[in-house]
Amino acid sequence: MTTSTVAKKDTQKLQRAIVDGLEDVKAQDIVVFDTEHLSALFERVIIASGTSNRQTKALAASVRDAVREAGFPKPRVEGEANGEWIIVDCAQVVVHIMQPNFRQYYHLEELWGEKPVRLKLGAAKPVVAKAAASAAKEKAAPATLKRSNAAKKGVAEAFPSKAQVKKNEAAAAKKTAAKKAPARSSAAAPAKKTAAKTIVVPAAAKTVAKAAAKKVAAKKVAAKKPAARKA
């Protein structure tokens, strides 16, 4: 018997132990995916749902006990504190125990669901998650698709991207500049006239003052000359 065959049998044995542990605590929607072609770290991903924090914690404990009873090392558990999403790392197999809302939001089936595997020998052949999703979309009514597109548009408008925000700000700035431009030009014309007046008036006044000063000086010189002759 080759090493790969032994490893495969060990993986199947571990998988059965995990599924039994999940079923003992009434886990919902258990699915198993072959991930050998996607990751070199593990060979199987198992996803199951628990309806409450209490049940998810009980499911994780049941899986841990079942794995140890089957002769495998004690698995590592993460997320057991809050119980919303618990990961049980069993080396070749990784188990995700999630509450329904978390499972629906993250939808791990799209990430790992290319090759579904039977839970146990004799079980019904599972449907590929991606194929099932595409088939559901094809069967959707046109009205449903329109509502979906409208919802996506509403989300895009309510939560625009950074690029869209910058684009909107640039457009608003251009409109504001276009509105302010005529006002500035009309306000600049009176200012220019006033400036011209302030420049011309002082120049004329200076010229008149100089001319008057010259006349006064000339009169003074003319008045002094006869007095000098008499002396």
Structural commentary:
By secondary structure, the protein is of the alpha+beta class. The protein has a domain at 3-139: Beta Polymerase, domain 2 (2-Layer Sandwich). It contains seven helices and six strands, in the order αββαβββααβααα. The chain has helices at 3-24, 53-69, 100-106, 108-112, 129-139, 142-158, 162-230; strands at 28-34, 44-49, 76-78, 85-90, 93-98, 116-117. It has a six-stranded mixed β-sheet. A hairpin with a 6-residue loop joins β3 (76-78) and β4 (85-90). α1 (3-24) runs antiparallel to α2. The longest helix is centred in the last third of the chain and has 69 residues, at 162-230. The chain is rod-shaped, with a radius of gyration of 45 Å. Mean pLDDT is 75; it is low at 129-137 and 196-201.
Concise description?
With 231 residues, the chain is an alpha+beta fold. Helices cover 64% and strands 13% of the residues. The protein has a domain at 3-139: Beta Polymerase, domain 2 (2-Layer Sandwich), CATH 3.30.460.
Look at the structure and give the CATH class of the domain at 3-139. Alpha Beta
Morphology call: rod-shaped
SS content category: alpha+beta
Rg from Cα: 45 Å
Briefly note the CATH topology name of the domain at 3-139. Answer: Beta Polymerase, domain 2
- Please work out how many helical segments DSSP would assign: 7
Give the second-level CATH assignment, the architecture of the domain at 3-139.
Answer: 2-Layer Sandwich
Q: Level of helix content?
A: 55-70%
Distance between the termini: 153 Å
The SSE string, one letter per element, is HEEHEEEHHEHHH
Q: What about the largest sheet?
A: 6 strands, mixed
Low-confidence stretches: 129-137, 196-201
The overall strand count is: 6
Average pLDDT confidence is: 75
Strand order of the largest sheet: 3-4-5-2-1-6
CATH homologous superfamily grouping of the domain at 3-139: Beta Polymerase, domain 2
Strand content: 5-15%
